[in-house]
Specification:
Layout: E1 16-22, E2 31-37, E3 44-53, H1 56-62, E4 82-89, E5 101-104, E6 107-109, H2 115-118, E7 130-131, E8 151-155, E9 160-161, H3 168-171, H4 177-187, E10 195-199, H5 203-214, E11 218-223, H6 229-234, E12 239-242, H7 246-251, E13 256-261, H8 270-273, E14 276-284, H9 296-301, E15 305-308, H10 314-327, E16 333-336, H11 341-349, E17 356-360
Parallel strand pairs: 10-11, 10-13, 11-12, 13-14, 14-15, 16-17
Antiparallel strand pairs: 1-2, 3-4, 3-8, 3-17, 4-5, 5-9, 6-7
Helix pairs in contact: 4-5, 4-10
The structure holds NADP nicotinamide-adenine-dinucleotide phosphate and zinc ion.
């Protein structure tokens, strides 16, 4: 292993404790707790986490809202919009050195040999991508823990280079919200002058607007929140209409080249399908439960498509980070302390976020929540300070 930030080469050769915020059950609030990170292996990078965005998926998972398809294992430590400073690297690592800034999105491992992995679509790994949280953890047993924590160890392939000059806190959300909306624009080739609709102006939706505007597409936002109409225009959308405005919806019949739906729960989709042109596609990246209210006749006569899309591969995630940094595209964020996570969750659910909460993970110490059990003789001295608040 190469030298760590403190100069000791053996600092993280054992698994080690770190502070994290997690939920013990679907109904309990997130609290500070101690988790264990694996020892830094030859291909691993250890990040000292600076920022982690709050994605609505974090809430779905912490509250076990996908029980049939992706049941939550507890304790649940969410977080997959992670930016941190590299403080140790394994001796085979070539992509990073100590002091670099790295990002981790939604995937931390995949088989690497199936046709999807070989085509840079690790998110569609045929043997099951390992997600940043709530996936089986091959190294330690149990399940993976996400970025609501002070430190994380990730194989270098799955760590994204964050270019110099990036606004770190506002770039963190691009690691999920950014790639999730960029990937369908790439796949469905959203081009300059085309008309795209964005359903739901939240974390994903506001990034989708910025990305579509950067491609010189014409953007219509469909919102349930009257207070967001002006914001949509400020973000660059040509128009924003309320779902309830039937006259405005009717005027759009057959107009759109692409729709990206970011709504977290199933809703009647037919009125939005009606706005698509012949052969156009509604890409659902939001609701991951049983979809609602589509009319087969209308799909057939309009030769329209309903598609899904999940995040993006590592190469494409690097691409969106580079693309956005070069164009100064970043999330509109509200920076919070870790002890404000539960309040932030409620505000996201209530559509009261403008437009992404990002946790300042360096504020863990200020919240009085630093783990204190030195489980290995060579754990960094700073990690011995403080108290364990909740080991439940
Ligand atoms: P978010 O910040 O909460 O934004 C969702 C927006 O949807 C809200 O701001 C709201 O916008 C609209 N909305 C309409 N009906 C709603 C309702 N009943 N409850 C809440 N919002 C409603 O969420 P996000 O972080 O953007 O994530 C959106 C969804 O995408 C989540 O379900 C998340 O799990 C999923 N997701 C999927 C992927 C993927 O790879 N496919 C990746 C990340 C996230 P208006 O106020 O404008 O109506
Ligand atoms: Zn996410």
């Amino acid at each position: 292993m190469a030298a760590s930030a403190s100069g000791s080469s053996s600092l993280f050769e054992n698994s080690f404790p770190t502070t994290a915020y997690g939920a013990a059950s679907a109904s309990s609030p997130l609290k500070a707790r101690e988790i264990t990170r694996r020892a830094v292996g030859p291909h691993d990078v250890l990040l000292d986490i600076l920022y982690c965005g709050i994605c609505h998926s974090d809430i779905h998972q912490a509250r076990n809202e996908w029980p049939e398809t992706l049941a939550t294992q507890y304790p649940s430590v969410p977080g997959h919009e992670i930016i941190g400073r590299v403080i140790a690297v394994g001796n085979a690592v070539t992509k990073f050195k100590v002091g670099d800034i790295g990002g981790v999105g939604c995937i931390v491992n995949s088989c690497g040999v199936c046709e999807n992995c070989l085509a840079d679509r690790e998110q569609n790994c045929l043997n099951g991508a390992i997600f940043t949280y709530n996936s089986p953890d091959a190294a330690l047993g149990g399940f993976t823990y996400g970025g609501y924590s002070e430190k994380i160890v990730v194989a270098e392939h799955f760590v994204i280079r964050i270019p110099p000059g990036a606004d770190l806190a506002a770039t963190a959300p691009l690691l999920c919200a950014g790639i999730t909306t960029f990937s369908p624009m790439q796949h469905w080739k959203l081009a300059s002058g085309q008309h795209v609709g964005v359903v739901g102006l939240g974390g994903l939706g506001h990034i989708a607007v910025k990305l579509a505007v950067a491609r010189k597409a014409k953007v219509t936002v469909f919102t349930t929140s009257p207070g967001k109409i002006a914001d949509a225009r400020r973000l660059g959308a040509q128009e924003a209409i309320l779902w309830s405005d039937q006259a405005a919806m009717a005027k759009l019949t057959g107009q759109l080249d692409l729709l990206i739906s970011t709504v977290p729960h199933a809703y009647p989709m037919q009125p939005f399908m009606d706005t698509l042109k012949l052969d156009a596609t509604l890409v659902n990246v939001g609701a991951l439960n049983t979809l609602q209210g589509l009319n087969g006749m209308m799909l057939a006569f309009g030769r329209k498509s309903l598609a899904g899309s999940v995040i993006g591969g590592i190469a494409e995630t690097q691409e969106v980070i580079d693309y956005c940094t070069a164009r100064n595209i970043k999330a509109d964020i509200e920076l919070i302390r870790p002890d404000q996570i539960n309040n932030a969750f409620d505000r996201v659910v209530n559509k009261d976020v403008r437009y992404r909460f990002v946790i300042d993970m360096k504020a863990v110490k200020a919240c009085g929540a630093v783990v204190g059990v030195p489980i290995a003789h060579d754990v960094a001295p700073a990690m011995r300070a403080g108290e364990i608040l909740d080991l439940a």
